[in-house]
Amino acid sequence: MKMQVSTKVSWVGKIDWEIKKFHGEEYSTHHGSTYNSYLIEDEKTALVDTVWLPYAKEFVANLRSVITLERIDYIIMNHGEQDHSGALPELMRHIPDVPIYCTANAVKSLRGQYHQDWNFQIVKTGDRLSLGKTELTFVEVPMLHWPDSMICYLSGEEILFSNDAFGQHYAAQSLFNDAVDPAVLASEGLKYYANILTPFSRFVTQKIEALGALNLSIRTICPSHGVIWRDDPMQIVNKYLRWAADYQENQITILYDTMWEGTRLMAEAIAVGIKEADPVVTVKLLNTARRDKNDIITEVFRSKGILVGSSTINKGILSSVAAIMEEIKGLAFKQKKAAAFGTYGWSGEGPKILGRLLAEAGFAVMEGELRSLWNPDEQAITVCREFGRRFAEYSR
Question: Taking residues 282-289, what's their average pLDDT?
Fold first, then answer.
């Protein structure tokens, strides 16, 4: 399959309709994904990125139906991760001497994964590669989202090949932002940033500002996953700047798991109390054992405050809550409030453990975890509602 992007650029990637989990089991892809590869045909021909390993033979066969492989003069690897480089070994079997342009860290990554000493050409920010009437300019963007990452800009066509930046996991037959469901696109774009790029927000801001300093006219943004931004492409850049600035909406999210429904009753009563104190705030309740973890992370990203609850088990917390807290800690959210609660039967350590974990994750934790013995009675429910009202005030 080939899709024309501009006069000299075409999409030659793979639409993966079936994938439901990405990065092993780490990222849920409810709407599938794509592995975007781009062919630039000028006086010289360049291929930007490849596709994931399971589709390597299919990719090379498709590419061969589009162009004689020997006509490819340069390969550009913006990032060495296997969803972009997986088809590279299969392609290089046919054209082993074609130079591969990438960062020094990408050379380490590609050699480490494929154990091949291909014709690597190391590039740095500001380096250029003439293709004839057009020219590629390379910009290193380490930690967006790997140390080896870079992006490149094609003059003349005014296209930014942004690799993992500005993408989303979204399979669609027409891969342009003005030809897909805008609600799905918005949701998947936010989820992608929340789960992948949040820890690197400082670098996001720095690199976008550095890119702006180059005064490039950008007509199209071509990421390595999801749709191509051809209608007002800078909208996604502006969204990244907002998301990178300790993003939050007027939302409070309650995360919990429950053994015998007592912690669920607490969560629901706390939610009532929050709404009593702040009728306009959005409140969402998510059972960590039953909801998708990446969707949970997205709601935490949206929130100005979260409450986390668990029953106490073996002097600890339930495993689904422990797992999501580990994810939350790694994402290093900033400027968010939090509180802990839970039921217990005997020892009751769970809420205190949660309070400590929230503080370690960088949240401003409201003083005093809330515990309820056994199943909360009417008096305990009243206390939970008051706890919710207090948290609403704390989160203003």
Answer: 98
Annotated catalytic residue within 27, 41, 74, 79: 79
Per DSSP, the three-state class of 337 is strand
- DSSP states of 218-234: -SEEEESSS-BB-SSTH
Catalytic: 256?
A: no
Cis peptide before 31 (omega within 30 of 0): no
Q: Specify the residue for token string 């004689």.
A: 68
Whether 127 sits among the annotated catalytic residues: the reply is: no
**Residue whose tokens read 């990408």:** 106
Catalytic residue among 164, 188, 299, 369: 164
**Catalytic residue, candidates 16, 81, 257, 369:** 81
- The residue length of the chain stands at 396
Q: Establish whether 115 is a catalytic residue.
A: no
278-282 long-range contacts, Cβ below 8 Å, gap at least 24? Answer: 278/392, 278/396, 280/250, 281/250, 281/251, 281/252, 281/392, 281/395, 282/249, 282/250, 282/251, 282/252
Reading the block at residue 223, the tokens are: 């990421």
Where residue 249 falls among pLDDT bands split at 50, 70, 90?
very high
Catalytic residue of the set 145, 188, 299, 344? 145
> Is the per-residue pLDDT at 211 higher than 90?
no
Catalytic position from the list 16, 41, 42, 83: 83
Which residue among 225, 257, 299, 344 is the active-site one? 225
Q: 30 catalytic, yes or no?
A: no
- Which domains does the chain show, CATH number per domain? 3-244 (3.60.15.10), 251-390 (3.40.50.360)
Which pLDDT band holds residue 143 (cuts at 50, 70, 90)?
Answer: confident
Q: Catalytic pick from 27, 153, 192, 193?
A: 192
Kindly report the pTM of this predicted structure. Answer: 0.94
Indicate if the pLDDT at residue 25 is higher than 80: no
User: Could you confirm whether 94 is annotated as catalytic?
Assistant: no
pLDDT over threshold 80, residue 311:
yes
Structure tokens at 140: 């290193």
Each residue's pLDDT tens digit, 154-205: 999 999 999 999 999 999 999 999 999 999 999 999 999 999 999 999 999 9
Q: Is 83 a catalytic site residue? A: yes
